[in-house]
Give the backbone structure.
Amino acid sequence: MLSIFKINDLCNRAAIDTISTGATVAFAIECFENNLLNLDDTGGLDLMWGNSKSIVELVRKIILREGIGDILADGAKIASEKIGKNSKQYAITSLGSEIPMHDPRYFESLAFTYAFDPTPGRHTAASIDYSEIGPFDKFEKSLNFPKKWKKNEKKKVKAQVINTGFHQILNCAGMCMFSPSFGPYPFIDLLNSLTGWNTNIEDYIKTGIRIQTLRQAFTIREGINIAQNELPDRIIGLPPAEKGPLKSKTVEYKEFYKEFCNRMGWNPENGYPLKETLKDLDLEFVIKDLY
């Protein structure tokens, strides 16, 4: 436990992400345990699982780009390209972003957001299942998710769209994602009071969808083919676990994305926001960048 405190302190002082660092360290450990890295490669660090002193030192080397740390400092994806030897299988990333420890086999729609959010590989990207930790519709009473959405795929997609819009408004208001965990809050009333607006929840959701659509357009404009992204097999349960609470569990996420695109007014084949959608969201200026 003390080593975790130390590693977090090192990361915070160096202004590097703890999730990416942790996943990259995990990548290095698996490479070491499977003989893709040896003591000569690591500068004498024994990277077997549980060797906390070596792991703390490895993080220090990553921060300073010393020795093996220089190879790992750009993340697991780039490190796997440098190491080779089939090390890619241990780099659990989405378009180069290290995937957090929040498991989509528990929260299925995390697979969808890990793969297809405009900034992929983040657990903070409006997954409808993950948001159940602090239900948005319990936080803001006017939020109207479809009834029994958990048991109906089409209703779940609709709930995901609403959740996406609300999530972006929550972000823009500077609210912490943990806020909904604390129960009912007059969020919309507060926004209207602070801004002098008289906006209802539906218009706020549409504004959030506008934000998400603009994020999507930016990612596409920059040449990232987000709609063709695929997650590592391990993260979705391929092959499925043979024992434990996730036994036989495999997550499907691609068809969910296509249905999500349809509801968002995006092309389900390539993720491009449709021209009609951009016009409806007052984003006409984006059309020339995409078409």
